Amino acid sequence: MGDLVTLLHDAYECYSTFAAAHPHYNAMLTGEVTYMLGDGISQLIKDRRLDPKKLVYTAKLAPLLGLGVEALIDSGEWVGRHLSDRAFDMAALGPNLWGNIFNAWFFTNNTVGEKTGYRWYEPFRHYWESVKAVDPLHGPGLFWESVKRSVRDHYVKNIPRFDYEKSVLGTAVAWNVFQTLNYSYVPPMLRTSVSLTASLVWTVLLSLWSLGGRRTVTGEQAVSASILNAPLPELRGRAAASARAFGKRVRAFGERLRRPAA
Asked: What global pTM score does this model have?
């Protein structure tokens, strides 16, 4: 037992030293482990199997997500230096405020992956397209209109609203408590690692919500595209069939009303 305690203590000391000396690499490596585990567990829960393409997609984006979590923790440190050093204020105005944007980014990445066959470079192309869609050359009115249109088309339409609302609620409640404790008791060089490790359960939840939500979003868009791209005769045929079906229901309902009561 003593050897095990010594081993764990040495592992902790080694990890702490690495985290203090290389915070960015530490965030990337811890993010890789956390997000890979979270994605794999969510797939097993939702689909009862692992999709290698999704795992590779997550593996290639996970270091960026780890750096994103590090940036969220640093935002709380900034609040502590410049606004308020109360742990709750650091949590609420730092990672838990900007964490909602992080969650939106997470959902968007996964929806784009679902649409494009989980090719890891597609999110970067998607975000570059959102930048190119902005028009800065024709006055402030058109500029802000193009910004709103780009945000709507490249972000809002790729985020499942109901699932995102659940993530906002979780951030406002559970993560406020956790990050308050994190800023209160955890050494600064380990706060990112502790957040990433503790977020394993949160990552599983986000992945589950995102897995269902992204399929809903892509399914709805596929149906809309099939309607918009259908030739006119086909649309007329669909409309006629719907009208006939509706007429049958109306006639059947009218006949039930005319029947004498028993």
From this structure: 0.72
